[in-house]
Amino acid sequence: xSLTPEEKLKHGLLIDLEPVVEQELNRHLSMAKEWFPHQxxxxxxxxxxxxxxxxxxxxxxxxxxxxxxxxxxxxxxLTEDNLPGYHNAISTAFSRDGAWGTxxxxxxxxxxxxxxxxxxxxxxxxxxxxxxxxxARMKHMEAGYDADHGDSFLHGAAYVSFQELATxxxxxxxxxxxxxxxxxxxxxxxxxxxxxxxxxxxxxMAAALEAEPDATMRAITDVVKGFQMPGHSIDGFLRKxxxxxxxxxxxxxxxxxxxxxxxxRNWNIFDRGxxxxxxxxxxxxxxxxLAQLDASATKFETRREERRARQEARKG
Length: 316
Fold this sequence. Notes:
Elements: H1 5-16, H2 18-31, H3 67-81, H4 83-93, H5 98-124, H6 130-143, H7 153-178, H8 181-211, H9 213-225, H10 237-246, H11 252-266, H12 277-315
């Protein structure tokens, strides 16, 4: 059976880039620090819940978190919960063989710790309603996860290059917004993992830009223009994301300035040569989109400040 041009491109890249994957895997393993979720959870704050143990039911006043930090932690945790779907997506976009498979499995194992530690923290500190959280987990995971660009290797690698950094920013800012030093310490540890994951994928895409500049440039533009966080299918995600954005935990300005631009700058997208045809067109599209996004971010910031000023005036 003959391969399509897309399949030929993917097959060739998987072969050509495997030495890069092995090199980046070894670099990652040399830098990754072993850590244990149970050491970041204040177990002494825990107590039995209602149910078979006949403990105390959860109530909102037990939570010490602000509504914004609470919602952000819930979104971050439910996002981590869909790990089986992400594992399937990335192993399909990449490969289960050789260094590719070793990386995918290592990445999955590290990501799994994030869901473990966040859920244990939320439960021990009674920060969220555990019944509502479990129901939300069931609903979210039953919906599954489908990558926006199917099994495209280049689109998949481009997506995780940005998404891992976006997740790092979200975790760090959630920790700072929590008002709890223990939560901030825990999420800083999680964010450190996400940063190493971002570096792996970013370096992989840098090699892809050298090997197939036009196809890689097109994938980058497609991903940036259509970017959605992996938890976008969470029930009530739009409402939660608005609350999170208004609090400054993760908004358009952060997405533009702290996620997209640093990665694109690392790849030297707007100063490098070698693009022709659709690659050059894709880069032009990307530049236009970033300008529009920057303007939208400024408009959002202005409106947010106006809302805050009105709220302060009413208080006065």
